[in-house]
Amino acid sequence: MKTLEIINNWIAKDSKVLDLGCGKGEILLDLIASKNIKAVGVEIDDSKINECISNGINVIEQNIDEGLANFIDKSFDVVIMSQTIQVLRDPKKALKEITRIGNECIVTIPNFGHWRARLILLLKGKMPVTGPLPDSWFNTPNIHLCTLEDFELLCSDVSIQITEKVSFDSKGNSNIFTRTLPNFFGASAIYKISN
Amino acid sequence: MSKGLGKVIKQSFKLPSDLLLECGKTLKNIELTYETYGELNADASNAILICHALSGNHHAAGYYEDENERPGWWDALIGPNKAIDTDKFFVVCPNNIGGCHGSTGPSSINPETKKFYGPDFPVITVKDWVNSQALLADHLNVKCWHAAIGGSLGGMQALEWCRLFPDRILKASVIAAAPKLSAQNIAFNEVARQAIITDPDFQEGHYLDTEKSPKRGLRLARMVGHITYLSDEAMRDKFGRELKEGKLNFGFDVEFEVESYLRYQGDVFSESFDANTYLLMTKLLDYYDPAEKYHGNLVKAFETIKAKIMVISFSSDWRFSPERSKEIVNALLAAEKDTTYLEIESSHGHDSFLFAEDRYVNALSAFLEN
């Protein structure tokens, strides 16, 4: 099952959804069509913001690193943060903030503990450049990479509960391997969390 | 650059009824001067209202006689294939009540006294304007605006449309605006008003009955205003410390280019604008505060809104800074309204809303056409 399908399954009809780092609004568009959600996106990239506007998506230009204090406590049913937390300056604070704003949150992250990343580091002694992590160490936007294990530790550290978790291989599929040893076979993972 | 609108004509409309103003007075025999561009479609669903700012008027785009004349004030954005595309939309821009370019205002004749209204023209509000614009919409067979758009004070009108006539507007673009004026904003307006009122030629506002008018005061008011419309950066880029004659003359005549520019702007304005109208417009700005009736709660003030609203601010605008636009945005979000917000990088200060910067144009057209 792909990420988009899982997000779709986890979101109830007519929900209020905030997508932080919404890009061109692909996830929100899908959810508007299938779940009739009330959508708000937050984005910082000019051209992606314009795509959101063209797509009729409500989008707020805002730098998440400068805080989310303008969003009221529990004002959204679901807050989505897809492939975004690792580019933020303060992921711990961001996690606390999104669980404050949303009744539930859906977070997807790349897994630095994936076997391919481990192998490159072990055998070549270099920072891994892989499909899900295609950038070099000096130009990657991903300044706070972690393994699934690390992420889960941080969640428990700030008393955030993980209610659902699925990990995927590098093609975006969940299989017997990613289910058995997610932190080793999973290239990325999706979590449902709440405080 | 795409071609412009070409020749346009101004039109006039006499309101079918008197208007009960927010101040309690009734204004009679009201005339609105307006322009329209493009064609209203068969189901009257493509009409866009343009709301002008403090010193603006109905002439938003195109020219009257000669293509070399200065085009309308928003010609950069309104026209075929421009941000507000007149091939697709029927664009309406009225001169608001209290103005001095054709619509009923202080320089009109009071039908009861047969004399100029002058300083006795009632103090009008943004709400009064919106009510008069609704009567114009009826006259043009526009039951529901596709959008209302405005910068600065124009943005406040667009926002007010969404609040007061939720079923008559689908979208609004609120540009370089604020939910109410700050003490600093009011202070600048007060300096402008004092410049006019203390000019001996003002004659307590009754100058139209005489040979003189408070041009010096109006000129000074405009010069102060103009400084607040530009950014420090824009002024530095445009003028720096350039000297008109290349050397210091150790006197008080024009020496720096910026002085020359301000004096010129003041001169032009004082010849074409009415001082009582200027007083009225600044007062109207000072009074605007939709949250006032709700004990300062802007979220409550926005409850009636149904339209999709796009708020746009500009990075170098210090008159109505991005922070002020965010007050609108955050209240709209809290009220669970369809909201989009952009903060556009621009060096033109408050005046940025007049320039066709790429990102701004793309966002506006995408918003209007999606």
Please write out the topology.
The complex is a heterodimer of chains A (195) and B (370).
Chain A: H1 3-10, E1 16-20, H2 26-35, E2 38-43, H3 46-54, E3 59-61, E4 76-82, H4 91-101, E5 102-110, H5 115-124, H6 148-157, E6 161-168, H7 176-180, H8 182-185, E7 188-194
Parallel strand pairs in A: 1-2, 1-4, 2-3, 4-5
Antiparallel strand pairs in A: 5-7, 6-7
Chain B: E1 11-14, E2 19-20, E3 26-27, E4 31-37, E5 47-51, E6 78-79, E7 84-85, E8 90-94, E9 109-110, E10 115-116, H1 126-139, E11 145-151, H2 153-164, E12 169-175, H3 183-197, H4 215-229, H5 232-238, H6 257-272, H7 275-287, H8 298-301, E13 308-314, H9 322-334, E14 339-344, H10 358-369
Average pLDDT metric of chain B:
96
- Number of helical segments of chain A? 8
Query: Which class best fits the helix and strand makeup of chain A?
Result: alpha/beta
Mind summarizing the main beta sheet of chain B? Answer: 8 strands, mixed
